[in-house]
Amino acid sequence: MKEFLLIFRMQVDANAVPPSPEQMQASMKQWQDWLGGLAAQNKLSAAGNRLGMEGSVVKPAGVVTNGPYVEITEVIGGYSIIKADTLEEAAGLAKGCPILAVNGNVEVRQIMTM
Questions:
Q1: At 29, is the secondary structure helix, strand, or coil?
Q2: Pairing, β 2-11 against β 63-67
Q3: Other Cβ atoms closer than 10 A to 81
Q4: Which backbone phi and psi does 52 adopt, to 5 degrees?
Q5: How far apart are the C-alpha atoms of 69 and 33, rounded to whole Å?
């Protein structure tokens, strides 16, 4: 069985109304249910984590810049690592991701061993 990285992305809308505590709780339940379902199928390698909004990018010659960049409209919100036999199976598992319900998307990439 291979491992695949699921990268959760969504559009940034500076004018969006922040979700209420109830909406946040309902969203977290959807994520817990989806990840729990993957775990129950023995398809979850690492539940992953949410990522902070601030970061840095290290470039050649030791240059460090701030990131993510303000001019982008899509951010990476988090990741998980799953187990599947094929890319198609991994993409099928990603179809249940709650981020899709809020116009986000899931990038699916196979993790290659060194």
A1: helix
A2: unpaired
A3: 14
A4: -70, 165
A5: 32
Give the CA count within 13 Å in the CB-facing half-sphere of 97: 28
pLDDT for 68: 64
What phi, psi does 73 have (nearest 5°)? -110, 0
| DSSP category for residue 102 | G
What pTM does this model have? 0.84
**Rounded distance, CA 50 to CA 38, Å?**
18
Domains of the chain are 2-13+20-110 (3.30.70.1060)
pLDDT, tens only, 68-102 = 665 567 788 899 999 999 999 999 999 999 999 99
- Pairing between strand 55-59 and 44-46? unpaired
